[in-house]
């Protein structure tokens, strides 16, 4: 018996737009990661990029549960001694709210070279406008 290996047709990729207004960060990230990987398609193959493009708007209005707004911290390290910096979710939301969604989705993708390719299909924007209207993205409702 032979294993069926689907051919990835790059012309068949769809575009989806998701409004993050009031959506919970983790639940939205799971839904977006599944679409990026192609897990919602019957031809899903773990080692192939068969997913679609996802545009997320209103990134600054994403919701986090519990006390994560003030008590969850993200660390960055410059490589130098004493170069650790910590930022709370509130700080990141104020300056770069796109990073919250991108970081959450990146953590839900596989930890290999394919993840970098999949992450390029994620477009996150502050506000409700995006420059991808020509691709005619389909509206996707996030799970709340």
Descriptors:
alpha/beta; Ribosomal Protein L13p, Chain: A; 4-stranded parallel sheet; globular
Can you summarize this structure?
The chain has 144 residues and is an alpha/beta fold. The chain is 29% helix and 18% strand. The protein has five helices and six strands, in the order E-H-E-H-E-E-H-H-H-E-E.
CATH topology of the domain at 15-64 and 98-140: Ribosomal Protein L13p, Chain: A
Structural class: alpha/beta
State the fourth-level CATH superfamily of the domain at 15-64 and 98-140: Ribosomal protein L13
Rg on CA atoms, Å: 17 Å
Give the end-to-end Cα distance, rounded to a whole number of Å. Answer: 43 Å
Q: Unreliable segments (pLDDT under 50, ≥5 consecutive)?
A: none
Average pLDDT level? 94
Residue fraction in strands: 15-25%
Q: In this structure, how is the largest beta sheet organized?
A: 4 strands, parallel
Helix count from the secondary structure assignment: 5
Strand order in the largest sheet: 5-2-1-6
Which architecture of the domain at 15-64 and 98-140 does the CATH hierarchy give at level 2? Alpha-Beta Complex
Question: Using DSSP, what is the number of strands?
Answer: 6
Order of helix and strand elements from N to C terminus:
EHEHEEHHHEE
Helix-residue proportion: 25-40%
Classified by CATH, the class of the domain at 15-64 and 98-140 is Alpha Beta
Quaternary state of this entry equals single chain
What would the principal axes of the Cα set say about the shape?
Answer: globular
